[in-house]
Amino acid sequence: MNIVRNSVQAEGDEQMCAVFVTLDPILDVDPLKFADWCASEPTEPSLAPTSIERRWAHHVGKSTLDAANLLFVLLIDQDDTGRLRPPLDETRISREAFGRMPNEETSLEYMIQNVLPTEDNQRVTELLFALNHRFDDHPCNTGDGGMILRGALSATEVVDLRTSLQGGGPRIHKDEPFDGAVTDLVRLLVLHL
Asked: What are the boundaries of each domain within the chain?
């Protein structure tokens, strides 16, 4: 149950990549089904694919949000008062730790390009692609204020990806541009999952 979104790079920070993503925990829902509901310009929270009335009251009320921002504020992990939960407080790894790459790609795109597809890890590459591209052609992809939602995984998909990544590790392309980066990204991704 994770959603991937772009964040804004600090102005003048040339050492950081132009594309910076965060992995945020979300409700246990079918991400595409919920995204389709958000794209339908809903006005009645009781018709959502899952119970979100309290979240709607905190973040939407009588306001109008675009599909991407609506999807994000209704699905993001939060407490009963609508505040974000602390970022991965048990491991002290922030949500942002996964999003930094010294190139123009997202961390997930780097993994997709450098994990060799094999019969054993086909599911890994499918799920990495879903995290980075599931919303590419969806109305929830882009929202006001620069919000870009790249993809999301359901709870079942999160378990599949974590299990696959921990089950011996993926085969890595021998010409990986940043030696050891995939291994580090796998470790960080498993912590986030």
From this structure: 2-192
